[in-house]
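Pair request: fold both.
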Amino acid sequence: MVVRKDAAPGLEITSDLEGTFLEAVTRAVEGWDAMRGEEAALLVADMRARIGGLGQTVERLEQWQRESLRDAQQRLAERLEALAGQSGLDQARLAQEALMLADRTDPTEEMLRLKAHVSQFAALLDGDADAGRKLDFLLQEMQREANTLLAKVAGLGETSLSMTQTGVEMKAEIEKLREQVQNLQ
C-alpha cells in the first residue's frame, strides 16, 4: 500500500483509490462537456430555424408594403386634392410636404437592415464559436429596426394591422433568440 505523506493520520489515500478518484472525475467532466456540446448543437439548430423564420417574415412584410403602397399613394393623392381645394394652399408646397412625410414613413430601410442582420446572424451561427456578444448585439439592432418599422407602418392603410401583428410576432421571435443566445454563452 502506498500512502501519501501529506495525508492526515487515519485518512491514508492509496494510489489505487487516488487513480479511481481521478478516473471518476475525468469521466464526469467529459460527460459534462459532451452534454454541453449536445445542448449547444440543439440551441444552434433552434436559432437557425428561428432566424430563417425571421427572414421569411421580413419578406412577407416587404410584399405587404409593395401591395399597400399603391393604395397609400391613391389615398394620399385624394387627400392632397381635398386639402388643396379646401385651404387654397399652394399645391407644389403641399406635394413637397407629402413627399417628406412619405420619406419619413417608408420602412424600406429598416427592412433592408433587418435582412442584413438576419444574414449576419446566420453566418455567425455557422462560423465563430465564440460569437455570443456579436449575436446579442445583432439581436439588439434587430429589435431597434423592428420598433422603427412598426412605427412607420402604422399609416399604411388596411394592411397596416397585418403588418403590425407580424411585426409584434417578429419582435417576440427576436426576444426568444436573445434568450437562446444567453443560454449558448
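--- second member of the pair ---
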Amino acid sequence: MFDDAWRTMKFHFYDPKMHGYSWDGARSKYQPLVEFVADKYELMNIINEMIGEINASHTGAAVGPGARENAVTTSHLGVELQSDETAGRYRVSYVYEDGPCDKDWVKVKAGDYLIAIDGAPVLAGANYWKMLSSDRLNRRVLVTFNSKPSEDGAWKSRIDPITMAEYSQLRYERWVKDRRADVDRLSGGKIGYLHIPGDGSARRS
C-alpha cells in the first residue's frame, strides 16, 4: 500500500517536479517506518506525512469505507459533563437540543448530576467512556441522573446514544445558534446571521 501510494503521487501529481521536493528521497525517508505499523490507520499516517512534504493542498490518503466495521467505537450521551470534585460526581453543564437526552422522559437539565451508567456508579474523574463503547451487549444505555450528587431520589432513563459524528453535528448546530444569538443581541436585531458550512460529510446545509 505504501509503494502504491508513492507511485500514484509520482505519476499522477500535476507537477512532475513535485514542487521541487525529492520524491525518491521521500520514499527512502518514510518506507523504513512501514515495518513498525500495527494497522492501516498507522500506515495512513505515514503516507500522509510523506505526501505532506510536497506541501500541496487537498492531497492525502485515507482508509476506504467499511474499513472500521469491526472496530470498537465510542458513543455519546448528548450532554456535556464537568467533573465536580467537591460533589464527587459529574455534573451536566449542557443538554444538546435534539440529542438523546433532550426527551421528556429523560428529564435531565443543566445542573443535574450523572449518577450511574447501566447501574455502574460514575464518580468524578472516572473514565466513564469505556461504559459507552460499541462492544456493549445492548445499544440502549440506562442512565441515572439526580438533582443532587447522591442516589437518593435519582431517576433512571433508557436512551439511544449517538455516534461521535452525530455529536459533532450537534456541537456545530449549537455553535451556529450561539453565533446567531450574539449577532442579534449586538445589532439589536438589525443584522441577520447565516453560516454556510463546509462541504464535508459531517455538515448538513
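Observation on the second member. The chain has three domains: 2-52, 79-159, 163-205.
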